[in-house]
């Protein structure tokens, strides 16, 4: 593996609990952004250089929660890239769209835990959203902020694929994924404050919903076995080689600049 240095850094936002810079100036991640304050907006746009927000939530989540205050920022572009099928207004799909872990594809490996099968479902259901997200990270000039509701699963998979595709040591990829464990109680508190998520999460132990060691490793292992790895999967689903080269260049250049600084 190529050695790319990343040092994830927490971003102190008043309106989010799980925000951090993964590769400064290039790749940020967070839980939902509905409660950002004016101070948060200035910090993200002026200090962190956010140019694009990749919103991985479903269309139903966006409708129920709202698009968030960053949509008012003229210098920020929002891209909605759900990892589940859109409802197209059909409320019968709402359960599956908001709570997709209720329905797992039977063809997914039985020896993988449910959360890994859910991650594999992202690949099967919405490869267009994943490839589109990676392409945006590759081709943007400023920082790209990836988020979903909690910022740990959907966001975790997209960020992990981006880092893995450029050859980052997988121990570092896993460490970034697991960092959300530090904020799981605050993440849960925020989600429980919303009627969109409260009924599903009320009474659950936050620790059992935290990213667990072994989960991302197993997901990436299956990706290797089935598809030859993240790069081959991305290429097979439409990511061009030029896009991959730009992704590698952006991440490596930012990492090198961070080490020099």
Descriptive tags:
single chain; 261 residues; alpha/beta; six-stranded mixed sheet; 6 strands; 49% helix
Outline the structure in words.
The protein is of the alpha/beta class. The chain has 13 helices and 6 strands. The chain has helices spanning 38-47, 59-65, 94-98, 114-125, 127-139, 154-165, 170-178, 184-192, 195-201, 206-209, 215-227, 230-236, 241-260, and strands spanning 9-10, 20-23, 27-30, 50-55, 77-80, 143-147. Helix 2 links the parallel strand 4 and strand 5 (77-80). Helix 6 (154-165) packs antiparallel against helix 7 (170-178). The chain starts with 8 loop residues before the first strand and ends with a helix.
């Amino acid at each position: 593996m190529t050695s790319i240095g990343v040092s994830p850094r927490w971003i102190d936002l008043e309106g989010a609990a799980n925000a951090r810079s993964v590769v400064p100036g290039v790749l940020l991640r967070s839980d939902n952004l509905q409660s950002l304050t004016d101070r948060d907006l200035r910090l993200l746009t002026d200090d962190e250089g956010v140019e694009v927000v990749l919103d991985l939530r479903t269309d139903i989540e966006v409708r129920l929660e709202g698009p968030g205050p960053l949509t008012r920022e003229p210098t920020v572009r929002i891209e909605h890239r759900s990892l589940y099928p859109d409802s197209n207004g059909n409320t019968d799909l709402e359960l599956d769209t908001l709570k997709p872990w209720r329905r797992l594809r039977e063809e997914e490996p039985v020896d993988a835990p449910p959360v890994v099968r859910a991650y594999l479902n992202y690949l099967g259901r919405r490869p267009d959203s994943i490839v589109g997200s990676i392409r945006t990270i590759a081709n943007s000039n400023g920082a790209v902020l990836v988020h979903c509701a909690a910022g740990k699963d959907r966001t975790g998979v997209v960020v992990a694929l981006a880092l893995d595709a450029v050859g980052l040591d997988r121990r570092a990829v896993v460490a970034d994924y697991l960092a959300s464990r530090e904020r799981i109680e605050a993440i849960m508190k925020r989600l429980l404050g919303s009627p969109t998520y409260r009924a599903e999460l009320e009474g659950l132990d936050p620790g059992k919903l935290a990213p667990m060691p072994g989960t991302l490793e197993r997901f990436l292992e299956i990706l290797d076995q089935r598809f030859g790895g993240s790069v081959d999967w991305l290429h097979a689903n439409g990511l061009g080689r030029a896009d991959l080269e730009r992704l590698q260049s952006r991440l490596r250049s930012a990492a090198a600049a961070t080490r020099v600084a």
